[in-house]
Specification:
Length: 121
């Protein structure tokens, strides 16, 4: 069965950086588009970024453009989210999700359990 496990969350000061990783249990990962989602405390989950199965196409929410970068290494069965210039509003749980398609759609098929990011001084 296909599983996703996030890692890399933690406590960071405003302006700092974190690199999240999403490890998949079953290769080949290049069958799946990968998305990162953010759920702030008390709010609904929101898509932050997606990357196509080949890595050629990427999308970002307006709130993170210029600060976050999504990438993937299919040989390592892992996707990443590099987060720079972090703001307190970036605080929350970050989830990795996958869909058996070349690009993210309205629904994702598989979800990890999330990793907590706290941006605070």
């Amino acid at each position: 069965q296909f599983h996703l496990v996030e890692s890399g969350g933690g406590l960071v000061q405003p302006g700092g950086s974190l690199r999240l990783a999403c490890a998949a249990s079953e290769p080949p990962l290049d069958y799946y588009a990968i998305g990162w989602f953010h759920q702030a405390p008390g709010k609904e989950r929101e898509r932050v970024s997606c990357i196509s199965n080949s890595g050629i196409s990427t999308t970002y929410a307006d709130s993170v453009k210029g600060r976050f970068t999504i990438s993937r290494d299919n040989a390592k069965n892992t996707a990443y989210l590099q987060m720079d210039s972090l703001k307190p509003e970036d605080t929350g749980v970050y989830y990795c999700a996958a869909t058996f398609a070349w690009i993210c759609g309205s629904e994702m098929d598989y979800w990890g359990n999330g990793t907590l990011v706290t941006v605070s001084s």
